[in-house]
């Protein structure tokens, strides 16, 4: 405790006390535990406009007029004004998934006298020279109507346009066109201009950039996916997060409503729409253009294991606390069983056939499934028991992840942790949203956890610096404390087998929660210092933990130094990670035992900044970013200088 208090004081006022012996002994021939391929992953939730308006590349907001206010995001312009020129029709129970569409009456209109403009998600990011793909479902009620699609800059000047001539049809057809932008604009919009004489119905009005991930039509924003792929994550947890629970059960996430044709996916309000009074987002909905098929496809694309989380019959306990009675829980269990079939089933099965029809006849090889998110109390335990019994009877090969509630300490956590371990639960999901002090002082959290039985999934972690808000919360102090904490997770890889930061994405103009791993606007994206910390752990994972000690003790904060070590059996390298939480450089001697010799060169990667408040921004994206250099290696003792406030990764070849 005294050392931790000293550390916090040192971080606050820059005290530095030199130490006598800083020799770190690395015992290469004494493996402790294997590091699972899933050790470092990513957590995705549709918060902070992470899906619609974020990684899902659709540029049109409220494309099917299903928001609570049907014309939210749209503006009607007409001169002269004619009442009823644009009406929203509702087909009600006949089309429950997508009941509304727009009926536009064009009475001998010239081009420019009647139009509807969509504002996008805090504007539309438009790039010069890029192709844009427009589409809409339409039906000609009467007459002939010509349609112009225009891209506008922030000054409402046209920077791209195309003309469409819908055919005469009484049934719904899709109308498509592509065109190129002549300018770049962060806050653009799209205008539909009508000409002619007639009545036309429109639905699912859509605009996508041509540079989506893998150039998939209607796909994901490529730069955001690339940021994830660069991390080489072992898993992707989806779709959350609190949206799994919903404000009440009617608004819970239901995976079956997110697959199949886009126009048949039933939109719901996002529970982050009104969750925070200081950051209201009344235009935040879930269209499910990014649904469970696309999540599985993303995992396959970047080589990550899928980890879906399903509702267990409980709404968010902070909101309504609604639960489904135990004698009515079977539909929730059926959803879980059907999801396994959707992911892994043969194409002759009901849900396997749908997967194949959507373009992926091969199974997704689902191996893990989460039951509930941040649920707690005896009501969660009794529901988890029912789920575990049913799922293990039919799919013993699927590992189940259970919730340990919202906090890593306290009576709520202790009850769940004790009871779930007694049930021999595969994984227990622990969450930590705490100040930096918690992360610095809990390096040893898992040192005395049982080595057998239930494993730990550190499913949501993030260091929250007090008295900060917004993007400035994603600063270097937060990341440095996380880097220190993760040494304790890696050192205990026998216990902790998965970990992920949360939340993942945040839009600068639409966030509800901070800090976040990755920040973006409509055109650019920035990895926070925390992003670089987890990425360095993930791409330098290694295959086996080995001892690294100082004075025959683990390195867990003496002189504000933290360390862990591993070997990579495939590349024949030793990987040492060292955090220096002091403001001053410290010199260390790495003493390697149990090997014949080291390679002649080591690669030393450093993440460092003297300013603990430093953040990465659009203007300065690499303010805190890794820098790599080569260092000469001679003998089995290697001196290393670690800068003040730094996270270091050293890779050395061995034989």
UniProtKB/TrEMBL annotation:
<dbReference type="InterPro" id="IPR013780">
    <property type="entry name" value="Glyco_hydro_b"/>
</dbReference>
<dbReference type="InterPro" id="IPR051563">
    <property type="entry name" value="Glycosyl_Hydrolase_51"/>
</dbReference>
<feature type="signal peptide">
    <location>
        <begin position="1"/>
        <end position="19"/>
    </location>
</feature>
<dbReference type="Pfam" id="PF06964">
    <property type="entry name" value="Alpha-L-AF_C"/>
</dbReference>
<protein>
    <recommendedName>
        <fullName>non-reducing end alpha-L-arabinofuranosidase</fullName>
        <ecNumber>3.2.1.55</ecNumber>
    </recommendedName>
</protein>
<comment type="similarity">
    <text>Belongs to the glycosyl hydrolase 51 family.</text>
</comment>
<keyword id="KW-0732">Signal</keyword>
<feature type="domain" description="Alpha-L-arabinofuranosidase C-terminal">
    <location>
        <begin position="459"/>
        <end position="646"/>
    </location>
</feature>
<dbReference type="Pfam" id="PF22848">
    <property type="entry name" value="ASD1_dom"/>
</dbReference>
<keyword id="KW-0378">Hydrolase</keyword>
<keyword id="KW-0325">Glycoprotein</keyword>
<dbReference type="InterPro" id="IPR010720">
    <property type="entry name" value="Alpha-L-AF_C"/>
</dbReference>
<dbReference type="InterPro" id="IPR055235">
    <property type="entry name" value="ASD1_cat"/>
</dbReference>
<dbReference type="InterPro" id="IPR017853">
    <property type="entry name" value="GH"/>
</dbReference>
């Amino acid at each position: 405790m005294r050392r931790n208090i000293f550390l916090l004081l040192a971080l606050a006022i820059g005290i530095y006390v030199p130490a006598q012996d800083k020799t770190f002994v690395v015992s290469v021939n004494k493996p402790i535990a294997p590091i699972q391929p899933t050790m470092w992953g990513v957590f995705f939730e549709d918060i902070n406009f992470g899906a619609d308006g974020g990684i899902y590349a659709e540029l049109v907001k409220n494309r099917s007029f299903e928001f609570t206010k049907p014309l939210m995001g749209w503006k009607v312009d007409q001169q002269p004004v004619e009442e009823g020129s644009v009406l929203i029709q509702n087909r009600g129970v006949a089309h429950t998934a997508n009941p509304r569409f727009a009926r536009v009456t064009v009475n001998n209109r010239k081009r420019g006298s009647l139009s509807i403009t969509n504002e996008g998600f805090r504007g539309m990011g438009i790039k010069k020279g890029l192709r844009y793909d427009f589409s809409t479902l339409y039906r000609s009620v009467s007459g002939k109507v010509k349609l112009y699609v225009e891209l506008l800059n922030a000054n409402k000047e046209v920077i791209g346009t195309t003309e469409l001539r819908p055919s005469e049809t009484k049934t719904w057809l899709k109308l498509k066109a592509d065109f190129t932008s002549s300018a770049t604009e962060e806050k653009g919009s799209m205008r539909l201009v009508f000409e002619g004489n007639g009545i036309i119905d429109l639905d699912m009005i859509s605009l996508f950039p041509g540079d989506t991930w893998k150039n998939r039509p209607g796909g994901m924003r490529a730069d955001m996916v690339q940021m994830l792929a660069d991390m080489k994550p072992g898993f992707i947890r989806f779709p959350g997060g609190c949206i799994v629970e919903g404000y009440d059960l009617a608004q819970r996430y239901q995976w079956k409503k997110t697959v199949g044709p886009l126009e048949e996916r039933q939109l719901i309000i996002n529970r982050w729409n009104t969750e925070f009074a200081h950051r209201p987002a009344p235009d935040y909905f879930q269209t499910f253009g990014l649904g469970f098929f696309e999540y599985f496809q993303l995992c396959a694309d970047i080589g990550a294991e899928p980890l879906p989380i399903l509702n267990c019959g409980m709404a968010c306990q902070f909101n309504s606390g609604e639960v489904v009675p135990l004698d009515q829980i079977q539909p929730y269990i059926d959803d879980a069983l059907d999801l396994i079939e959707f992911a892994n089933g043969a194409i002759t099965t009901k849900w396997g056939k749908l997967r194949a029809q959507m373009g992926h006849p091969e199974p997704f090889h689902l191996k893990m499934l989460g039951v509930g998110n941040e649920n707690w109390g005896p009501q969660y335990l009794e529901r988890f028991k029912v789920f575990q019994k049913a799922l293990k009877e039919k799919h013993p090969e699927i590992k189940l992840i259970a919730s340990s509630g919202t906090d890593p300490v306290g009576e709520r956590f202790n009850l769940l942790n004790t009871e779930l371990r007694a049930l021999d639960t595969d994984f227990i999901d622990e969450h930590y949203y705490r100040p930096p002090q918690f992360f610095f002082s809990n390096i040893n959290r898992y040192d005395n956890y049982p080595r057998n039985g239930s494993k730990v999934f550190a499913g949501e972690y993030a260091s929250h610096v007090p008295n900060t808000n917004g993007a400035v919360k994603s600063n270097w102090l937060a990341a440095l404390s996380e880097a220190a904490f993760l040494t304790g997770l890696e050192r205990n890889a026998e216990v902790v087998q998965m970990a992920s930061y949360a939340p993942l994405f945040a839009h600068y103009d639409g966030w509800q929660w901070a800090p976040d791993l990755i920040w973006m606007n409509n055109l650019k994206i920035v990895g926070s210092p925390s992003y670089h910390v987890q990425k360095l752990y993930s791409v330098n994972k290694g295959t086996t933990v080995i001892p690294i000690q100082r004075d025959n003790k683990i390195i867990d904060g003496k002189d504000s130094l933290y360390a862990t070590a591993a070997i990579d059996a495939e590349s024949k390298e030793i990987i040492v990670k060292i955090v220096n939480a002091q403001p001053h450089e410290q010199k260390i001697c790495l003493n390697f035992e149990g090997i014949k010799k080291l390679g002649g060169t080591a690669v030393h990667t450093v993440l460092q900044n003297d300013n603990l408040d430093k953040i990465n921004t659009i203007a300065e994206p690499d303010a805190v970013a890794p820098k790599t250099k080569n260092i000469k290696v001679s003998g089995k003792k290697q001196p290393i200088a670690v800068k003040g406030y730094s996270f270091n990764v050293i890779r050395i070849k061995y034989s």
